[in-house]
Write a structure and sequence with these properties.
By secondary structure, this protein is an alpha+beta fold. The chain has three helices and nine strands; from the N terminus they run αββαββββββαβ. About 20% of the residues lie in helices and about 35% in strands. The strands form two sheets. The chain has a seven-stranded mixed beta sheet with strand order 6-5-8-3-2-1-9. A two-stranded antiparallel ribbon has the order 4-7. The radius of gyration is 22 Å and the shape is globular.
């Protein structure tokens, strides 16, 4: 009888430990954490663009992006990056980042006219080499007081 009670006690402890671990995301193998970027105390859940095809597509053709979300373009090395608003349907803030520092910001970049010629679209370029570009909903930079020189941290990239 003592053996059966002892086995139930061990089983109960194992169940409690397992359930506790599953509720703690640090130990939960079934919960995946979204990649994110933190700037100036603000966290943005990011969609990563790591390939040439993803860089070209970007956010083009989408009607909107949820608040506190962003697209993070990840480049293999720092260089002078250039962006345009081809087929964009909503305005953006663009943040060019080198390692962990904001180097260039464009705010409230407007969408192009529906009949705009591609060769006439403005180019938005980094003022110094950048290995990341973060695209946010227009107005986010001002709302969150993000500025050149701010430190950027990355999670789960």
């Amino acid at each position: 009888m003592k053996t059966i009670i002892g086995l139930f006690a061990i089983l109960f402890i194992v169940i409690i430990v397992t359930v506790t671990a599953l509720h703690n995301n640090d130990y939960n193998p079934f919960v995946t954490k979204s990649p994110s970027v933190q700037i100036n105390g603000n966290t943005f859940i990011v969609e990563e663009a790591k390939t040439n095809a993803a860089w070209q597509q970007g956010l083009s053709g989408r009607k909107s992006m949820p608040a506190n979300q962003a697209m993070l373009f990840i480049f293999p090395k720092a260089d002078y990056q250039q962006f345009w608003m081809k087929q964009m349907l909503f305005p953006l803030d663009m943040i060019f980042i080198n390692n962990d520092k904001v180097v260039t910001i464009y705010q409230n970049v407007p969408i192009p006219a529906a009949n705009a010629n591609l060769s006439s679209l403005p180019i938005y370029a980094s003022s110094s080499p950048a290995d990341y570009v973060l695209e946010l909903n227009a107005g986010t930079v001002k709302k969150d007081n993000i500025k050149v020189g701010d430190t950027v941290t990355y999670s789960n990239l």
